[in-house]
Amino acid sequence: MNILTDKLPEKVRVGDDVFELNTDYRAGIEFEIMVEKGEDNNKALLKPFFYGKVPDDLAKAATAALWFYSCGAVPKGDNVGKNNKQTYSFDTDAQTICADFRRFYGIDLSGGNYLHWWTFRALLFGLPEDSGFKTRIYYRTCKLSDLPKKERARIASIRKSIEIKSDTSGKMTLVERNEKMRAYVLKRNKETEGV
């Protein structure tokens, strides 16, 4: 599916049924925050996308929701860097993201206006390198040992001030959660094949 040429999805097929999706960007953010906080109830995780009415076949619903969340691709864990460290958080970076959308796109995210999740993601990751969002990602991921000593101290101080606070203490990263959901989906699909 191509965001430039195809109509953005509003429904997904789960088994033989077609379900309308909550395609607003807030549903994707809610899902990601729940994952970040360690929510492990699959039905609860799927509620934001299915308007609270999750299909009975959780495995197929999870597959459809992950496809939608990943903008039609296999989830890559965009908010996780090379060292499996979280690079952004919709909780921690909310104000910065709002300010950047206003500054660079003229979009007021706090205004309650609809924006499709896929469009939101394209805009978020399309922000310029000098945006606050991309700058925060740089500070969280740059290799301090490659920087001059004076710069290391400055960056370390900035890192501390924009640190992503995790109340999950050892709970799963988004990548781990997606992998767990994919494994669950595969397991359920195999179980239902024999029925």
Overview in brief:
The protein is mainly alpha-helical. The protein has 8 helices and 2 strands.
Describe the structure.
The structure is a single chain. With 195 residues, the protein is mainly alpha-helical. It has a domain at 11-77 and 169-193. 48% of the residues lie in helices and 4% in strands. It has 8 helices and 2 strands, in the order E-E-H-H-H-H-H-H-H-H. It has a two-stranded antiparallel ribbon. A hairpin with a 2-residue loop joins strand 1 and strand 2 (17-20). Helix 1 (25-36) packs across helix 5 and helix 3 packs antiparallel against helix 8. The protein is globular and about 60 Å long. The mean pLDDT is 86.
Tags for this model:
195 residues; mainly alpha; 2 strands; 48% helix; 4% strand; globular
> Share of helix among residues?
40-55%
Question: Based on helices, strands and strand pairing, what is the structural class?
Answer: mainly alpha
Within the largest sheet, what's the order of strands? 1-2
Report the major sheet: 2 strands, antiparallel
